[in-house]
Design a protein that fits this description.
33% of the residues are buried. The radius of gyration is 20 Å and the shape is globular. The chain is built from 1 helix and 9 strands; from the N terminus they run E-E-E-E-E-E-E-E-E-H. By secondary structure, the chain is mainly beta.
Length: 189
């Protein structure tokens, strides 16, 4: 029911994507955690086109291409889509992101959406400033048993991460900006 993006930062075919590591994933049928960043929601009743986890918890870590952006990326929006016949459209995950050059992931919170009917759901994370985080080189989603009637299963169809290359201003450019600001102030005086 929701559109999946094939050109977001973690899409498997994007130049901004480097690699993914999935830990604790207990696949149901022919499902795969690799399906959640392939740019497709898959087919409504085909397990092999989803990430369908039996025990309800796993962690997917996405590494961004820092050769293309050494200072990391600005994250502007994150969307997760879930759904399956039966009441399995609920979703719950913890989001962590890592700044370029840092050894640890910072926690951004746990996000939960309970949907008690057949269908699909989407969690969309944005910020009123337009920027969720800057200088990011990796992000981690810990998907967990959703609240609601779906049992232990988590059926995630797609995760899209939107943003752009982060560039740190050069010290010389910052000095020019600062001197230009001071010059304007002097003229007004």
């Amino acid at each position: 029911a929701f559109p999946a993006s094939a050109d977001d930062l973690i899409d498997v075919s994007a130049v901004t994507f480097d690699s993914a590591v999935h830990t604790g994933y207990a696949a149901f049928g022919g499902s795969s955690a690799d399906r959640i960043n392939d740019g497709s929601l898959g087919t409504a009743t085909q397990v092999s086109t989803t990430a369908f986890d039996l025990d309800g918890q796993w962690t997917s870590t996405y590494y961004l291409n820092t050769a293309a952006a050494p200072d990391g990326y600005v994250i502007t929006e994150i969307r997760s889509m879930a759904g399956w016949p039966g009441p399995r459209a609920s979703q719950k995950f913890e989001l962590r992101m890592r700044a370029a050059g840092q050894p640890y992931f910072a926690n951004y919170g746990v996000f939960n959406l309970t949907y008690d009917a057949n269908g699909s759901s989407m969690i969309a994370l944005t910020d009123s400033t337009g920027i969720i985080a800057s200088g990011i080189d990796a992000m981690q989603f810990t998907f967990m048993k959703p609240d609601g009637p779906s049992g232990n299963e988590a059926v995630i169809r797609e995760v899209d991460v939107f943003g752009y290359r982060y560039t740190v201003p050069e010290p010389a450019a910052f000095g020019l900006i600062l001197s230009g600001t001071l010059l304007v102030w002097r003229r007004r005086r």
